[in-house]
Write a structure and sequence with these properties.
This protein has 147 residues and is mainly β. The protein has one helix and nine strands, in the order E-E-E-E-E-H-E-E-E-E. It has one domain: Roll (Hypothetical upf0131 protein ytfp), CATH 3.10.490. Strand 3 and strand 4 form a beta hairpin. The longest helix is centred in the middle third of the chain and has 11 residues. It starts with 5 loop residues before the first strand and ends in a 17-residue tail after the last strand.
Length: 147
């Protein structure tokens, strides 16, 4: 009997065409583009974004089906559960899927909010909104790119 697969929403550097897409692995199956329900906030930390569950924005991304091995690989890459925490998010369809949101070790002070909810638009000149100082965690993230 095949093992269950987990549906994962990615919104940053794990998306197709982004620098960390390869981390998903060859066995990850692309499902579709997706948009969250308008209850999140996407923040640009420079090299990668972070998704916060305290906003009112819809965030664009992609859905992938992963097996347990792929999910463990992404958990390690994302620093789950301290840097990023894998948890359910609601899509605009009402379905719930897993995604990586800011964990307790992420600091977003001085970051840029992306109210358009699209990580890819940051390169097109779409400006974000500077964030007020808001520490989600205790220390800054040490890896150069993620999500």
């Amino acid at each position: 009997m095949p093992r269950p697969r987990v549906r994962l929403f990615v919104y940053g550097t794990l998306m197709r065409g982004e620098p960390n897409h390869h981390v998903l692995g060859a066995r990850a199956r692309a499902v579709a583009g997706a948009v969250t329900a308008p209850r999140y906030r996407l923040v640009d930390l420079g090299e990668y974004p972070v998704l916060l569950g305290d906003g009112a924005d819809a965030v664009r991304g992609e859905l992938y089906d992963l097996d347990e091995t792929g999910l463990r690989r992404i958990d390690r890459f994302e620093g789950h559960p301290s840097l990023f925490r894998r948890q359910p998010v609601e899509l605009d369809s009402g379905a719930f899927v897993d995604a990586y949101l800011a964990g307790p070790a992420i600091v977003i002070a001085g970051s840029i909010a992306l109210p358009h909810g699209d990580w890819r638009l940051r390169a097109s000149g779409e400006s974000g909104v500077p964030q007020a100082t808001l520490d989600v965690g205790r220390r800054t993230r040490s890896r150069s790119s993620n999500n």
